[in-house]
Amino acid sequence: MSKDKSAKIPTPQPVRGTQDMLGDFADRFAHVVETFERVRRLYGYKRIEVPVIEPTAVFARSLGETTDVVSKEMYSFEDRGGESITLRPEFTAGIARAYITNGWQQFAPLKVATHGPLFRYERPQKGRYRQFHQLDAEVLGSDSALADAELLVFADQLLKELGIAEGVTLTLNTLGDAASRDAWRAALVEHFEAHRGDLSEDSLTRLDKNPLRILDSKDAKDRPIADSAPDIDAFLTSEARDFFDAVTAGLDAAGVAWERNARLVRGLDYYRHTAFEFVTDRLGAQGTVLAGGRYDGLIEALGGPPTPAVGWAAGIERLAMLLADDVIDNRLDAVIAVEDDSQLAFALKVIAAMRGNGLATEIVATGSPRKRFDKAGKIPAHALIAIGTRNGETYANIRGDSELTTKIDAIIRVL
Ligand code: ATP
Ligand code: MG
């Protein structure tokens, strides 16, 4: 066989709807995660990790067969042992499963937070991916409206600290307790039945399986019918009304602005009381940046004890896209140019001390010594340190803003 050097090995292409990240976007992504990690600690949320893979039943049973996610978006496969596995399309169901199987009831109320990749078989487009990432916060085992309010204040502070709260609105609704919801649902079915002929194809299916979902239909055909449907207010029990009032009172006390959106539903059967979305008009069709609600029926639907819970999730990519251009300063504190190879050991001692003192530092010690200073100057940093020998003496010249140079000088002086 002749060796054909020109025959190239084809490079496997990435899976559609996945992203590689480097540079600016990767920095933005990391900034969102770091800010989340800092803020969740302020609210006493514990870090939690759950598997990327779960038995398919975890999602099929909890999300319900009629949701978009379960009916057409799940990445499910049979593994080598013949078990049906699904790549998690969301965090909540996996966390609820973990709560039951680990007996975490003993820690109730349990406040947890996590972030990581999720998978949905969607049509890829700007801001919509097949592997995407979310921040997630949940409170398991609390039936207090204070938990809902605190969770929302946490979300609000996160968006403020990310600098994207402007132009983002918290929209809020209540889905009531089981009694309110059932009465409302019956009234909705009656209303939609009367307009059956004018509903979209999708909404006709929803009418049988999940009528609440027609309320937030994006189909123009459905909008007038959805907009004229009755609000839940006339059907709220006094307990459900008190609960909603307590949530909004908590928000008002914390100074969090909110708007009622009586059309907002989280379509799943296990949702109760609070439902919310933080929406923006800056992302075109993908306007929801953070969404969640109270899901008192979920853990029971997974075979656990009746457990009230509330939570939210936010798409990291969407938050990263909303960050202002100037929020990320990825400049190093300092760069060292080693202008004389005989000073390499000293320069390595300096850089170790700098990093040991929490200063992000890089070193330029290769290539022509005469060119190293210019090379170092091109690396974005707050200070530039030139280390070399003059008249047989070691020097370390520091340039940069005075506070930082004073700090660096103090570090080098004691070496
Ligand atoms: P949408 O109406 O945009 O499909 P959803 O109701 O499916 O949203 P959730 O399941 O509530 O979304 O997820 C919460 C957040 O996760 C969304 O507001 C969004 O920021 C993000 N998200 C959801 N799906 C994707 C995706 N395919 N790609 C990127 N981010 C996503
Ligand atoms: Mg979706």
Describe this structure in words.
It is elongated, with a radius of gyration of 28 Å. The chain is an alpha/beta fold. The protein has 14 helices and 15 strands. The strands form 3 sheets. It has an 8-stranded mixed sheet with strand order 1-5-6-11-10-9-7-8. The protein has a 4-stranded mixed sheet with strand order 13-12-14-15, with helices on both faces. It has helices at residues 24-42, 56-63, 68-73, 92-101, 145-161, 178-194, 201-209, 223-227, 238-254, 298-301, 316-322, 344-356, 369-377, 402-413; strands at residues 46-47, 53-55, 75-78, 84-87, 110-119, 131-140, 168-174, 259-260, 272-280, 288-294, 309-315, 332-338, 361-364, 381-390, 393-400. The chain folds into 2 domains: 24-177 and 237-322, Bira Bifunctional Protein, Domain 2 (BirA Bifunctional Protein, domain 2, 2-Layer Sandwich), CATH 3.30.930; 332-413, 3-Layer(aba) Sandwich (Rossmann fold), CATH 3.40.50.800. Strand 3 (75-78) and strand 4 (84-87) form a beta hairpin. Residues 90, 120, 122, 128-129, 132, 134, 286, 288-289, 291, 313-315, 317-318 line the site of adenosine-5'-triphosphate.
